User: Which sequence fits this backbone?
């Protein structure tokens, strides 16, 4: 019986066990997936002794995604480029790491806005944290025409310029100048924590956006953030954050349990009910 886990500090909020145990049941695989709290000072020891922990691999979440790189035997080119891993697996006794967040975002975008093409589009990304890094990397790989980043802390946005390519330049605008960047935007992505339950709201008037623009928010608590509500009311196609969470999980499941799982409406509804049992959002 294969076992996997999600590690973080704290970890009690994670919905990953709900997702993976649904897939294990759905595919009739005798396996398990659990939460493991791992303190920062214990991370290196934990990752070097995954097999002793009885695990075939793990997901890595806050605050370990960057530090984990220093404790793996191998990381793929994507993880090296992004400087972060969220998925680890054992192969021939060695630990390997990759990042599935960017792929998860792209798959979610494709599911929610099937006719939207990133290639040739102008993308505006709000935020420059770990999730933004992964998403910007994926947008560059999909050859967006331009990526513009706005972040409260300018220096963090500047650091993401290095992910750009000849085909997809990454540029930066000051947070207060954000409204001026809206009219040219084909895809707006919020990767900040703003709008998340318990955080401040994202104060942004979407009126300057063109009607065809797609609006994505990777925050998934609440399921429908005020940004998405505003975008929907204005007639934009929207991409909720829960889709990214579900799609990024598929990579690890396939590596550990040998089956590529599907993100179905049934799974979406299961996790959505866990986030909001009253179905308010
Ligand atoms: P992170 O590395 O800590 O980055 C946080 C980002 O939010 C930074 O850009 C930060 O700006 C910005 N921010 C935080 N508070 C702000 C405020 N009061 N005003 C303006 N900007 C603020 O976190 P992360 O891992 O990138 O995650 C960011 C969000 O995405 C979280 O809500 C997380 O739950 C969500 N997420 C969702 C998924 C998914 O699968 N759907 C995956 C990963 C993350 P500064 O640089 O100025 O601090």
Assistant:
């Amino acid at each position: 019986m294969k076992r996997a886990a999600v590690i973080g500090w704290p970890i009690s909020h994670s919905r990953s066990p709900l997702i993976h145990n649904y897939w294990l049941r759905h595919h009739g695989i005798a396996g398990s997936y659990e939460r493991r709290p791992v303190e920062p000072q214990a991370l290196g020891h934990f990752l070097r002794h995954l097999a002793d922990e009885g695990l075939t691999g793990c997901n890595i979440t806050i605050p370990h995604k960057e530090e984990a790189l220093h404790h793996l035997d191998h990381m793929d080119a994507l993880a090296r480029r992004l400087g972060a891993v969220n998925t680890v697996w054992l192969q021939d006794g060695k630990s390997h790491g990759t990042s599935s967040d960017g792929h998860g975002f792209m798959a979610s975008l494709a599911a929610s806005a099937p006719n939207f093409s990133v290639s040739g589009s102008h993308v505006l990304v709000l935020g420059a944290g770990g999730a933004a890094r992964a998403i910007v990397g994926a947008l560059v790989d999909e050859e967006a025409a331009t990526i513009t980043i706005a972040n409260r802390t300018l220096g963090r946005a500047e650091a993401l310029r290095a992910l750009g390519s000849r085909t997809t330049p990454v540029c930066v605008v000051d947070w207060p100048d954000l409204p001026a960047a809206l009219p040219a935007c084909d895809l707006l992505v919020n990767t900040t924590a703003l709008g998340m339950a318990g955080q401040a709201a994202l104060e942004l008037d979407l009126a300057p956006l063109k009607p065809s623009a797609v609006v994505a928010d990777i925050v998934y608590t609440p399921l429908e953030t005020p940004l998405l509500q505003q975008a929907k009311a204005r007639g934009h196609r929207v991409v909720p954050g829960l889709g990214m969470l579900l799609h990024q999980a598929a990579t690890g499941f396939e590596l550990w349990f040998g089956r590529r799982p599907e993100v179905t409406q049934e799974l979406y509804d299961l996790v959505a009910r866990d986030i909001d049992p009253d179905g308010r959002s």
